[in-house]
Amino acid sequence: MTAETPKTADDERRRGGGPIRPDDDAEAAPDAGAAPDAGSAPDSDRTGRCVTNRIPVRALPLLSLLPLALLGAAFWIGRLVRPGADDWCFLPVVRDEGATGMIAKFYLQDNGRVANALLVVAYGAFGVAGHQWFALVSGVIMLGVLWALVASALGRARLTAPRGLALLVAATATAVFLLSTSNTYKVFYWPASSVSHTVSPVLACAAVIPLLRARTRRGWGLALGVALVAGVFIGTLSEETAVVVLVLLAAVLLLSLRAVPGPTRTRTRVWCGVAVAGVVIGAAILYQSPGARTRRERFGADSATMLGPRALGDALRSFADILGTVLTTWQYLGAVAVGVLLGLLVRHDGRERDGRGTEGPGTDGRGTEGPGTDGRGTEGPGTDGRGTEGPGTDGRGTEGPGTDGRRTEGPGGPWPGGPLGRRLLLPLLVGFLAFLVAGYLCTIVARPAFGTSVAFAPRVWGDFLLLYVLLMVCAGALLGRALLRRARRSGRRARGARTVTVTAAVAAALCALTCVGLAVPLIRLEQRMDVRAQRWDRQDRSLREGAARGARVLPYTPVSVSGMGEPFGGNGKRLWPGQCVARYYHLERITYSTRLP
């Protein structure tokens, strides 16, 4: 089979066995005639190691202990959680009617969120203990999902990271996401709110992991199935999270028009289409439910009211207030800092890329007529006759393991030096634009129920704040790669190494400072939760003892924390959820009291 005549200098060097000029990282390309050693590392990677070898990567596990210790303390504080607000109404239903009763309540009466009802049953079935364990269980799940997401994304991009770096990124992002708001209790510790607005976006992230790890047809089929099921689940769990997911999927589809090359483009579109179908199905189930119609009637949330010019303007002002709060919360800089460390320390996977196209499976070491290709990526064993998706190529005859080393795309995903690597800023900017659009739409959806207070209710911001935290990590990683590239290209390697080391030290210090900044308000919250837990337990014993004696009416003193709703709130003016409390203790009613038993 005849090889195509080379048309570029890179093609000439490839066919002569010389090294390919690196796309972006190397300081200078070697001479074309110099035959490289097949087993040697790329010049860009050697330069990168010279620049970053002063960074004490062995200290990363120690640095990870800071956010992990912070999260551990937050999880431990969860033992002080006691039911309040909506919990009073959920617990008797779960106890008396089980899962079917809870699902019927949500679908027929409250809001139509069937998946939400299932999660309420998951912790409500254990009573008060379920509330106390909720922070630990949900926190570990969220940390695990983000850890797996970071590790899978690095693996898909064929990047390797020092041990402990992925965990550091995930732990810091989790801590910032859960603890940076002004009302951590409602955001994280209150189960009824957390499952709707804090856990739900993390579960949406979990649906991406099978796609990132798919390597076989079975894995690809699993990724599609997870996308569909997760889409339906998210659609019936939280309207706001469903809005964020749909906006992000639309953004990815638009980016795939030019930024994702080869077969990955088709697979990305198919996966996004399946996920969109799942979310739309779930949202339709929720929207058409009797409970959702009842909720819209109760808050006057019809389309004419929500989408009128005045309502849209009010929602825009509320979202501007939310942005003002978020952008002035300095703890989010911890996500940028850990992203900088990520950008400085990740490396290309040498097992998949040697930078020169030397002797990989499916080539002969020069990208020409070896087993698995025919020299042009066409009709050789290991392709499909069109140069697509066969072992030894990536579907375009470029950048599969052991092809000609042009580094554009392989089965595992795009190289940082390929099309996405040269335009990383575009996906990041599109991501921030998607954040703004999704945040505004979520504000429109939440405003009928919350009114102007939506700007002061951080518990409903979590649906789009997780996206913000992840974007800040990506922005930091992009900044770290830019600093590293500049240091590599500088004429003085020692000076570049010092710059990189100082940058890494500053980023690590900012990560540590962020953890301290998050720990101080957490300690204060623990003290208030401890006081409330003691008072709640004392009143709980009194009410149970009174009900056991046959009393039908008993006094109740509101015991609140962090603005949680309690019976007789507002100095006895608001009864809700007094009737739910009476049902929980098997009473006819409760009366207002200002003195604890």
Tell me the radius of gyration.
Answer: 28 Å
Large-scale geometry: globular
Give me the oligomer status: single chain
Topology, number of strands: 6
| Sequence of strands across the biggest β-sheet | 1-2
Main pleated-sheet profile: 2 strands, antiparallel
> Could you tell me the strand content as a percent range?
under 5%
Strand-and-helix sequence, N→C?
A: HHHHHHEHHHHHHHHHHHHEEEHHHHEHHE
Give the uncertain stretches in residue-range form: 1-48, 351-421
Helix content: 55-70%
Protein architecture, described:
There is one protein chain. By secondary structure, the protein is an all-alpha fold. It folds into two domains: 58-348 and 422-527, no CATH class; 528-592, no CATH class. It has helices at 9-15, 43-52, 60-77, 86-110, 114-124, 128-156, 165-179, 184-189, 191-197, 199-206, 209-213, 217-235, 239-255, 263-287, 290-299, 303-306, 309-327, 333-345, 419-422, 425-450, 462-489, 493-548, 569-572, 578-584, and strands at residues 159-160, 347-348, 409-410, 413-414, 553-556, 589-592. A two-stranded antiparallel sheet has the order 1-2. A two-stranded antiparallel ribbon has the order 3-4. Strands 5-6 form a two-stranded parallel sheet. Residues 1-48 and 351-421 have low confidence and may be disordered.
